[in-house]
Amino acid sequence: MDIVRGNMGWIEVIVGPMFSGKSEELIRRLRRAEIARQRVQIFKPMIDQRYAKNGIVSHSGLEIRSDLVHTALEVLDKVEARTEVVGIDEAQFLGEGLVEACTRLADMGKRVIVTGLDTDYLGRPFEPIPRLLAVAEEITKLLAICVRCGNPAVHTQRLVASEDLIVVGATGMYEARCRRCFEPQLAHERVEAEKTAAEKAKAAAG
Ligand code: ADP
Ligand code: ZN
């Protein structure tokens, strides 16, 4: 954001697949705000406890302390009046209240910086992030590197056998894939393969 007069707030969103550098970019922006001696508060969902309980950690090991919350409305409750910058990581896990919470914080004059997955393991829009994009002042879309072919990767490939929307995990459970190498049906195929294997084992035992 360039010229901002008075104490107007706004919403910045950083999206992209897993491993695209969203957390790194969030940490970079928040550190710079701290260097400018702004009052910063940082939140992440309780669901994502990989690596650190009280901090945001990127896949490359960068870290910044943060508060754990269950919902977006809890962020609203915890933000102090004097806070100038609010950072939220992995916001796709914070539920439907995200858009309202971010809008209210921005309306209160705060700079709100949010990261999230814009698509799910099937490549579909991952609500409520797409709705947040619609009301944001600034959107940064990052890409990872496809682990198969080295092209820019827009997708989060699930490798494990589950068809739940939310399966928390990192390396080994997910990898970055470009649109050519993306296999959205893979998770379903693995679920079916596990079922077949279980049936065969049962038949052999019986
Ligand atoms: P995100 O928050 O988007 O999941 P992070 O900021 O946590 O991403 O991690 C980004 C870092 O992950 C990169 O700087 C790089 O060191 C590492 N990394 C691991 N696998 C990949 C990949 N396939 N493409 C790009 N970066 C990767
Ligand atoms: Zn590829």
CA-based gyration radius: 19 Å
- CATH class division: Alpha Beta
| CATH topological fold name | Rossmann fold
Weakly predicted, low-confidence segments: none
Structure write-up:
The chain has one domain (10-205): P-loop containing nucleotide triphosphate hydrolases (Rossmann fold), CATH 3.40.50.300. Helix content is 28%, strand content 23%. The protein has a six-stranded parallel sheet, with helices on both faces. A two-stranded antiparallel ribbon has the order 3-4. Strands 9-10 form a two-stranded antiparallel ribbon. It is elongated, with a radius of gyration of 19 Å. By secondary structure, it is α/β, with parallel strands linked by helices. The longest helix has 20 residues, at 186-205. Helix 3 (98-107) packs parallel to helix 4. The model has no long low-confidence stretch (mean pLDDT 93).
